[in-house]
């Protein structure tokens, strides 16, 4: 792995974990502010209960929550366990990407994607909305790395991404429109379809089916386990599909090529 010594490999992975935890903490804070209608780009981190500005002892990812026993150091208000879990999840995601793609330009692109996807999942879970600004950020991440991947063949990279994006979203759009007509209500949110489109840009078309299947499996598990709904009065059984898509995209980044190629070899 990484073609480095054991010690240097361990060092790189620790750095990835630390960076992931820090970015997870930042993303959790930014998503929380967005859901609360606050400007996430301004002001220092503060306690949601007492408003006290947080210092270094309060902001060390994972460890601050453990040392403070899950409570604000200033007012004693309970801090959700979701904060350290998000930081752990982000740290694990960063390590997984580095293990799978080595220290490469591709890794840099996917680490940025992980941060944006985490924000998408958190916001959609809390609000049932996938902001267009985050979808644009995903598109921008894909676009700005095009000249540096696969030998820098820009047109080929562009064509491959667009084809996969259409393959992952257009069939869903068609099915969604038909189901909307049959059921007389929205069957799938437009934000979910747009999320599939921008995330499909990062794949080849033959890996799209894996992405869709895995995302749907996670969606079913998520709906059953959490019972979370979007709060839509017209469709009270609707649930936020974004977190499942986010997890499906991450698993597909790591495993879609291996799983799909192994499956196709069965017929060769």
Describe the protein in words.
This protein folds into 2 domains: 1-103, no CATH class; 147-268, no CATH class. It contains 10 helices and no strands. The mean pLDDT is 88. With 268 residues, it is mainly α.
Q: What's the helical proportion of residues? A: 55-70%
CA(first)-CA(last) distance: 30 Å
Work out the strand percent. under 5%
Rg from alpha-carbon coordinates: 20 Å
User: Helix/strand-derived class?
Assistant: mainly alpha
Approximate shape: globular
- Characterize the main sheet: none
So how many helices? 10
Q: Uncertain regions: pLDDT < 50 for 5+ in a row?
A: none
Report mean pLDDT, rounded to a whole number: 88
SSE order: HHHHHHHHHH
Number of domains: 2
Concise account of the structure shown:
With 268 residues, the chain is mainly alpha-helical.
Question: Which terms summarize this structure?
Answer:
268 residues; mainly alpha; 10 helices; globular
Write the layout of secondary structure elements.
Blueprint: H1 6-35, H2 56-59, H3 63-67, H4 82-101, H5 105-127, H6 132-145, H7 154-183, H8 190-200, H9 208-226, H10 242-265
């Amino acid at each position: 792995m990484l073609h480095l010594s054991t010690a240097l490999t361990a060092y790189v992975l620790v750095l990835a974990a630390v960076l992931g935890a820090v970015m997870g903490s930042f993303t959790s804070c930014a998503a929380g502010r967005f859901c609360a209608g606050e400007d996430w780009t301004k002001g220092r981190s503060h306690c949601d209960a007492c408003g006290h500005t947080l210092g270094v002892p309060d902001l060390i990812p994972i460890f601050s929550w453990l040392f403070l026993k899950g409570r604000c150091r200033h007012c004693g208000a309970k801090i959700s366990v979701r904060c350290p879990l998000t930081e752990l999840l982000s740290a694990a995601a960063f390590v997984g990407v580095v293990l799978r793609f080595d220290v490469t330009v591709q890794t840099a692109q996917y680490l940025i994607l992980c941060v944006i996807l985490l924000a998408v999942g958190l916001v959609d879970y809390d609000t049932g909305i996938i902001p267009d600004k985050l979808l644009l950020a995903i598109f921008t991440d894909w676009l700005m790395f095009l000249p540096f991947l696969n030998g820098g063949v820009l047109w080929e990279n562009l064509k491959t991404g667009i084809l996969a994006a259409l393959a992952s979203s257009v069939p869903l759009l068609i099915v969604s429109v038909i189901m909307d007509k049959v059921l007389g209500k929205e069957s799938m949110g437009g934000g979910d379809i747009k999320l599939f489109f921008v995330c499909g840009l990062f794949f080849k078309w033959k890996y799209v089916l894996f992405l869709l299947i895995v995302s749907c499996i996670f969606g079913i598990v998520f709906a059953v386990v959490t019972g979370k709904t979007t709060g839509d009065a017209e469709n009270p059984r609707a649930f936020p599909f974004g977190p499942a898509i986010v997890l499906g995209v991450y698993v597909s980044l790591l495993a879609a090529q291996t799983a799909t190629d192994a499956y196709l070899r069965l017929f060769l």
